[in-house]
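Consider the tokenized backbone below.
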């Protein structure tokens, strides 16, 4: 039994005194304690060393106090497992050595034994759970097929991923092959994480909103649907950032337990778009954490009032930014913990 299972109760739709809270990218680089480790070990060494994974995952739990931990890792471990060399360059972000440039290259990508290649993640989960000592649930995650394909073709982060989109529109069959292959790998990966002990999994489709509704139906929806049908044994949260137009469809046509929404959507719009039994997560503008603390406190309470305290998980609308003061992140979490008092 977990000492704090509020997050799982909100996912199950059980009534709660107050909603649970955690922050996307909470184990990241706004924490001075994380920056110290960043100086000592390179990024993927941090991801591959179970003791470091456990230590970093627990930093925000000890320092900020959210109701759930998210495993320290990265969405790009999947393309790495498929054979790409990826460097995390300071100031630039991830850079892949040989981005896919032709349909032939895409069709030459072969599936790998994900459980074997990513066994270090499963080890990280086991060590992290020991260290968490059942204090809070542990969230596992993966990138979604579309978002991973964006990086594999573009080769690095981008404002519009124009190269990746051009590839998909020019070679739809090669894109479908890659998206299917990624979907298989992601399903296997998330099921392995659940068997290793994560209590829930979240799928990050960070760049879904770069597509309009028609292309969302082609390049995103079928794959997310299949992931929700074939990942079993734990609640699954979908985060299709920017795809407000697809909330209704994601809620009605997939088996997701919850949908995470960004700050472009009002709580009323989101609730109205989805079926009643689904949990919503979100959606405080990460930059809003730069506001004075009393403003954050007021806005958080109002956000809970508007989403409703049940079937709701308080979170940001995207990852926390590196320039957020730690005491502002703490104020965000505490405002939720004192809701209704
Ligand atoms: O709470 C956590 O931080 C948990 C671990 C986590 C990381 N990345 C660690 C990380 C999670 C959940 C992610 C997800 C991730 N990674 C996403 C989806 C969520 C989102 O923000 O949209 C994406 C698109 C990536 C790819 C990625 N990794 C980028 C674009 C970058 C560089 C820019 C950035 O966000 O810093 C990374 C690097 C990365 N992943 C860092 C961390 C803590 C920072 C680099 C470092 O510490 O050296």
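A designed sequence for it:
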């Amino acid at each position: 039994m977990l000492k704090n299972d509020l997050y799982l109760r909100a996912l199950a739709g059980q009534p709660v005194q107050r909603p649970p809270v955690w922050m996307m990218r909470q184990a990241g680089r706004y924490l001075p304690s994380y920056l110290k480790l960043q100086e000592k070990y390179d990024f993927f060494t941090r991801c591959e060393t179970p003791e470091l994974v456990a230590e970093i995952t627990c930093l925000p739990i000890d320092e900020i106090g959210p109701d759930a931990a998210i495993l320290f890792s990265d969405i790009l471990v999947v393309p790495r497992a498929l054979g790409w060399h990826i460097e995390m360059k300071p100031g630039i972000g991830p850079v892949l050595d040989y981005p896919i440039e032709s349909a032939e290259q895409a069709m030459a990508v072969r599936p790998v034994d994900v459980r074997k290649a990513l066994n270090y993640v499963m080890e990280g989960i086991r060590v992290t759970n020991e260290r968490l000592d059942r204090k809070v649930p542990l969230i596992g995650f993966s990138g979604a097929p579309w978002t991973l394909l964006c990086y594999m073709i573009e080769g690095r982060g981008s404002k519009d991923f124009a190269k990746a989109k051009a590839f998909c529109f020019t070679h739809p069959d090669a894109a479908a092959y890659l998206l299917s292959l990624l979907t298989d790998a992601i399903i296997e990966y998330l099921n392995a994480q659940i068997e290793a002990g994560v209590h829930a999994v979240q799928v990050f489709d960070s760049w879904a909103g770069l597509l309009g509704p028609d292309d969302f139906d082609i390049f995103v929806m079928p794959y997310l649907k299949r992931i929700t049908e074939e990942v079993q044994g734990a609640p699954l949260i979908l985060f299709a950032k920017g795809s407000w137009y697809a909330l209704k469809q994601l809620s009605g046509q997939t088996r997701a337990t919850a949908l995470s929404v960004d700050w472009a959507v009002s709580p009323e719009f989101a609730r109205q778009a989805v079926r009643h039994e689904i949990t919503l997560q979100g959606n405080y503008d990460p930059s809003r954490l730069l506001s004075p603390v009393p403003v954050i406190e007021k806005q958080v309470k109002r956000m809970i009032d508007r989403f409703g305290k049940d079937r709701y998980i308080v979170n940001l609308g995207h990852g926390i930014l590196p320039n957020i003061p730690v005491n502002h992140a703490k104020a965000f979490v505490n405002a939720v913990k004192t809701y209704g008092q």
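The radius of gyration is 19 Å.
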